[in-house]
Predict the 3D structure of the following.
Amino acid sequence: MDPIGSIGAASSSLIVDQASSPSMNMSAVAEKFARMMKDTPPLSSVESESPSTLGKMLINQDESIRKEIQDTAALMQAAIQQPPGVDLTAYQVTLMYQFAGTHFQVQAMSSLAQTAKTGLQTLMRNQ
């Protein structure tokens, strides 16, 4: 008689028997789940809540980017309408400074959002 083969046969038949028999625990778990779902308060609408700190930052960033696009369009119009020889370099430097600042802010917010996302993922994994 093979001792290893008899252990494998016994444990596999035990697993099959346990899996095929109805379990009282599963019905209790299902009832508990149904109670929890019934007692859970409804989720509030995202639109009715005030924006989060990150949301407010993104709204402000969007406004500044739109302003920069308008300023760029104004520079293009000024360049077209100005007579030759008029220097728009100071305006161009100011506009490039605004773009650099906005780019830095976007990168900082992206980093914050990525860090928050990673933290939430870690928290959900550890639960």
